[in-house]
What does this fold into?
Amino acid sequence: MQHFDSPSTITTTRSVIEFDRHRLSIEDIVAIANGNAKVRLSNDPSFRAAIARGADFLDRLLKEDGTIYGVTTGYGDSCTVNIPPELVEELPHHLYTYHGCGLGEYLSPAQTRAVMATRLASLSKGFSGVSVELLEQITKLLDAGLLPLIPSEGSVGASGDLTPLSYLAAVLCGEREVWRNGEQVSAAQALSEAGITPLRLRPKEGLAIMNGTAVMTALACLAYDRAAYLTQLSTRITALASFALDGNAHHFDEILFSVKPHAGMQGVAAWIRQDLSVGQPERNGKRLQDRYSIRCAPHVIGVLADALPFFRQSIENELNSANDNPIIDADNEHVLHGGHFYGGHIAFAMDGMKNAVANLADLMDRQMALLVDSRYNHGLPANLSGIEGPRAAINHGLKALQISASAWTAEALKLTMPASVFSRSTECHNQDKVSMGTIAARDCLRVLELTEQVAAALLITVRQGVWLRCRVNPEASLSKPLMNMMDALANTIAPIQEDRRLEPELRQLLTHIGDQAWVLYA
It folds into this structure.
């Protein structure tokens, strides 16, 4: 079997993640976001000296009356406005103040921790002209559990995530509000009670915090983690659906898949072979060809599986970049003006990911349609109702659940329109081509949420379908992986005989999916 990116092949086991100039992984950010790892700023003298050189170089330039964008000039289209020397120190505080216009739902605590860690990673590269004290302030907030309330809407993804990151900048200075133990508290009060002194930003530090891709990249890290798990979960669901439908396991034959060399697709087929014990002689009477949602499942899931390494590369390269403007090259004493705040790579990755993930929702929705329809489920009851006898007339099994899954699927598919093609010229046409990467990342997370809801519905469906198949065909036997999965599902879902409300079980399954509670494939 050829290996490809999945959550089981790359894991993070560290309880403390150190920030310096070394490369971080998606798993590092996810561990911090989920509260499974603490953040520590490196004490290595050479690292701290490299950070300090950038801030010291800017100080020297200021004393020499150097012109530095965003330090001695206004921002964006206002770069032609020269700032009087006596007002330079106030400029970064004005930057985060006037950008305090975000709206929409606040980022969750996990998302906010990911954003803070992602910004810390970029600033730790040593090309942003910030002080060690600024980096330490971010780590102090994370360690104290003081998380800025960051509105999710208001970024066009270039010049980076200006508006949402202004909320981080403000909190570092003791302004606006934070989450603390699940409650909203003023930042001034929270910092005071934690013994943290508010920062007074140095001349470029407001721009360095805000003028980058930390929000979209943080959300992309979380999206990747969920998409990788869904790749495995939809594969396991497919195997259970094939069994419940009395399908032809030889659709996943190793020789068959060897002639189409997509590694991710081949890996998905290998997982299904493992689940269905392919290789055993097929009993007589098996259909020659199952419908596409079963037979072609590796080809559908395999698109995402094969795209995951590309998504990882794009996301981790952005995570490990200095992505503000200007870039400060203290060693060679250069101030380099560019556009590294542009989030095009994240936008493309998120637009692609949401397309591939929505196709998983569509695949599972079609599998469910086969399972509940007595015309296509090969001997199972209509709507997979488990009741027998006279009361069967008033019981409707999974009829409504299939309607809900169809609604969630439709919404996921609707959101696959790429955000990156909706660039809008803004800010007096200075930002005349923007990435929309943050919108793409938010869309992708919503598609993931909807697809996870479809997966929860399918877990109920395949659990019911396999139970009924074993009742209809007592000679049918499950492989050990599928038996283990059925045992795990039985802890959450009892067989459905009399109609019952399924929302509590759906919500519990969503919690299990979010926690990645089942170890699916090694």
